[in-house]
């Protein structure tokens, strides 16, 4: 049994995939601030994401779509073909992104606007910043979907 499975089995294990190191670092900081989550791996492109997923089997993968070498859409298709239960959330810049719709059809469960990650990181630095609503959007194809919230 891997150390990921034996240590803190109640923790939500997260893999972050984005080609921008600052965004990965920001997400790592947000996850570190949560008592029920742990960042198990990071990747900067789709090929690394597939390898890290195979190695760590995260509970949730946060994945950018636009990356060099292999994009997030191709990585989602590959991961979901090998691991149909994989829970992948897309990281995107735009709410109406056509690539997000393709990723949702490929099996991503939801999408998260990058600006929300940035706001959350800023909030950690500036605690007086007012609360913002959740920025997570669930896939309408997910049977457990909830109405989207407004950023």
Account of the 3D structure:
- The chain has six helices and six strands; from the N terminus they run H-E-H-E-H-E-H-E-H-E-H-E.
- It has 151 residues and is of the alpha/beta class.
- It has a six-stranded mixed sheet, sandwiched between helices.
- The longest helix has 12 residues.
- The N terminus and C terminus are likely disordered.
What is the CATH class designation? Alpha Beta
Oligomer kind = single chain
Provide the domain count: 1
The end-to-end span amounts to 41 Å
Number of strands: 6
Return the string of H and E elements: HEHEHEHEHEHE
If classified by CATH, what would the architecture be?
A: 3-Layer(aba) Sandwich
CATH topology: Rossmann fold
CATH superfamily: Response regulator
Query: How much strand?
Result: 15-25%
Query: In order across it, which strands form the biggest sheet?
Result: 2-1-3-4-5-6
Strand count, sense and closure of the main sheet? 6 strands, mixed
Q: Which residue ranges are poorly predicted, with pLDDT under 50 across at least 5 consecutive positions?
A: 1-6, 129-134, 141-151
- Total count of helical runs of at least 4 residues: 6
- As a percent range, the share of helical residues equals 25-40%
Computed structural class: alpha/beta
The rough form would be described as globular
Q: Which radius of gyration do the C-alpha atoms yield?
A: 15 Å
Let me know the average pLDDT: 80
């Amino acid at each position: 049994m891997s150390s990921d499975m034996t240590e803190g089995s109640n923790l939500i294990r997260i893999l972050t995939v984005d080609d921008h190191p600052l965004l990965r670092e920001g997400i790592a900081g947000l996850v570190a601030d949560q008592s029920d989550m742990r960042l198990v791996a990071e990747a900067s492109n789709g090929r690394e994401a597939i390898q890290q997923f195979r190695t760590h089997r995260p509970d949730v993968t946060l994945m950018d779509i636009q990356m060099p070498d292999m994009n997030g859409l191709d990585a989602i298709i590959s991961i979901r073909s090998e691991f149909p239960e994989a829970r992948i959330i897309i990281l995107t810049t735009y709410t109406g992104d056509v690539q997000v719709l393709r990723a949702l059809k490929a099996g991503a469960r939801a999408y998260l606007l990058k600006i929300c990650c940035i706001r959350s990181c800023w909030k950690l630095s500036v605690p007086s910043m007012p609360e913002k609503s959740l920025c997570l959007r669930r896939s309408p194809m997910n049977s457990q979907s909830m109405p989207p919230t407004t950023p």
